[in-house]
Amino acid sequence: MKKIIVLVSSGVLLVVGMSINSDNAFKIEKFKAGTHKHAAGAPDGETGAPGETNCTSCHSGTVQSGATENSLIVAQGITPVSAYVPGVTYNVALQMTSSPAKKGFQVTALTAANNMAGTFSAGANTAVTGTTRKYANHKSTSNTSATVAWLWTWTAPATDVGPVTFYVATNKANDNSANSGDVIYLSTHVYNSTLGIDDQENELATNFTAGYSADNKTVVMNFNSMSVGDMYFNLVDLNGKSVFVSNLGSSQIGQNKQSVVLPSEIKSGIYVVNFFVGNKAMTAKVMI
């Protein structure tokens, strides 16, 4: 697989005019050319999510469906996913398929109750803002066609919160050094939790046991699997905070036994083990 790294540089054109006043002193007047109102990212709350406005609050353009313009991919490593595992961190990539000469974006991720779902971390060509709700935004160095895609990471909620909706707003700017004539594209992208994909998971969960061995600080799990699937371990405290996540490779058909050595910094207490085989979820409490 070939990896392509795109480096983007930007500059601001500054024109300096000088005149001499009656005291023979120089007066310097500075004029910016080609300035864009939000070249380094939109103010918070412009995604079109419930309770928010969109980019037309500053840009006097039109709002269009972004179903085909906004290409959002959530991936584990380089593999796209259609559902999230609680507590796992994913790579997110957003691309405008038309690749306009000047562009921008803002994204947030909300639960069905319109609360922030998980958290964002900035990538090399993005910025993350906001307090209660987090927003991924373009930067002044990533608002042109030289940026193929905007990249950042999303850490899913530590527990199952049901469907998570990414609200995406992009701006196809006409680069006229003004706020007029731009086109705003809005789209939504829904990711369900792996915990709610199939009711037959309940049968599998009844065969799952987890225990803790203090001698070697290890969680030992036993379960039956009807298929081969990727295994993920997520240890959550009683406040719902994920304290340790591990990828355990692939399961085997039939009886399985898996052991996970915990980091030494994990404190004593009661925890919940969330264990996944593919999209099948199992849960058990352990005393550490």
Description of the structure:
The protein contains one helix and 21 strands. Strand 1 and strand 2 form a beta hairpin. The chain is elongated. The N terminus is likely disordered. The protein folds into two domains: 139 residues, Immunoglobulin-like; 90 residues, Macroglobulin (MG2) domain (Immunoglobulin-like).
State the gist of this model.
The chain is mainly beta. The protein contains 1 helix and 21 strands.
In CATH terms, the superfamily of the largest domain is Reeler domain
- Let me know the number of strands: 21
Largest sheet: 7 strands, mixed
Q: Which topology of the largest domain does CATH recognise? A: Immunoglobulin-like
> What is the CATH architecture annotation of the largest domain?
Sandwich
Order of helices and strands: EEEEEEEEEEEEEEHEEEEEEE
Structural class: mainly beta
The 3D shape can be described as: elongated
Task: State the distance separating the first and last CA atoms.
Answer: 43 Å
Strand content: over 45%
Average of per-residue pLDDT values: 79
